[in-house]
Design goal:
- By secondary structure, the chain is α/β, with parallel strands linked by helices.
- The protein has one domain (about 35-280): NAD(P)-binding Rossmann-like Domain (Rossmann fold, 3-Layer(aba) Sandwich), CATH 3.40.50.720.
- The chain has eight helices and seven strands; from the N terminus they run βαβαβαβαβαβαααβ.
- Strands 3-2-1-4-5-6-7 form a seven-stranded parallel β-sheet, with helices on both faces.
Length: about 280
């Protein structure tokens, strides 16, 4: 992988959900650096939020490891098409499914589309998330609270429930939690609460599915340079984002992908109920 960028990102802001083309500096998703070794040959993966950020890095890595990929995304069509290009250049099939994960009717279509096109689901990565920075609960509208829970928690539940009947022994569910699940930021209270819920739900799921040979794990990222940051935080917090962790910088999305590859692969056959911290040195509890 390319040497991580040492420079801090300048103050900047976008409208949610944010797009890659407006980011400074441009994140590294492993486009030029990730080299696969057949760890996921023949597998089928469903990845939410796969157009950019961690999801894009995971989609590129999975494809180069041999997996076909369904990418679920909101409306960032250009970013999604670009990610699809990298998947197809790796010789794998890519299905793009646009729509709002806050819409239950849309969420229920995602797994059936994967089964229709690919025949099964071997890996489910629940990665898409919504957050917004607010210093006071007075600023959190009831509608925003409901939207956060719908995208971050309810969609995960619906997708897991729909995917499990199509999974065989050796299949893997990977949910994106966060360092905020254990050390919640006061400005991200609704988001942090959902991330704790994701970690807890995943731990229950691992125990529930063990007898079926299906594994469930979560990844807890620290600060990662993705479009979500300038789209949901004030410019003054975007500037120098990530400098608070021991490594002194935000991660590039490409630095998260290997954890997801491990958990998706047969090499992790005895790893279930785990939570992998990718936090730049900041421990999780």
């Amino acid at each position: 992988m390319a040497e991580p960028r040492p420079e801090s990102q300048p103050a900047q802001q976008q409208e949610p959900p944010g797009v890659l083309g407006k980011m400074d500096p441009k994140p590294d998703h492993g486009e030029e650096s990730y080299r696969g070794s057949g760890k996921l040959t023949g597998k089928v993966a469903v990845i939410t939020g796969g157009d950019s950020g961690i999801g894009r890095a995971v989609a590129i890595a999975f494809a180069r490891e041999g997996a076909d990929v369904l990418i679920s995304y909101l409306n960032e069509h250009e970013d999604a098409k670009d990610t699809s290009k990298y998947v197809e250049e790796a010789g794998r099939r890519c299905l793009l499914v646009a729509g709002d994960l806050a819409d239950r009717a849309h969420v229920t279509t995602i797994i059936p589309r994967a089964v229709e096109v690919f025949g099964r689901v071997d890996v489910l990565v629940n990665n898409a998330a919504f957050q917004m920075s607010h210093p006071s609960l007075d600023e959190v509208a009831d509608e925003e609270w409901d939207h956060t829970l719908a995208v971050n928690l309810s969609a995960m539940f619906i997708l897991c429930k729909a995917a499990i009947p199509h999974m065989q022994p050796g299949a893997s569910i990977i949910n994106s939690s966060s360092v905020n699940s254990d050390m919640p930021s006061p400005d991200l209270a609704p988001y942090a609460m959902t991330k704790a819920g994701i970690a807890n739900f995943t731990a229950s799921l691992a125990q529930m599915l063990a007898e079926r040979g299906i594994r469930a794990n979560s990844v807890a990222p620290g600060p990662v340079w993705t479009p979500l940051i300038p789209a949901t935080m004030p410019p003054e917090k975007v500037e120098g984002f990530g400098e608070q962790v021991p490594m002194g910088r935000a991660a590039q999305p490409a630095e998260l992908a290997p954890a997801y590859v491990l958990l998706a692969s047969d090499e992790a056959s005895y790893i279930s109920g785990a939570r992998i911290a990718v936090t730049g040195g900041k421990p999780i509890l």
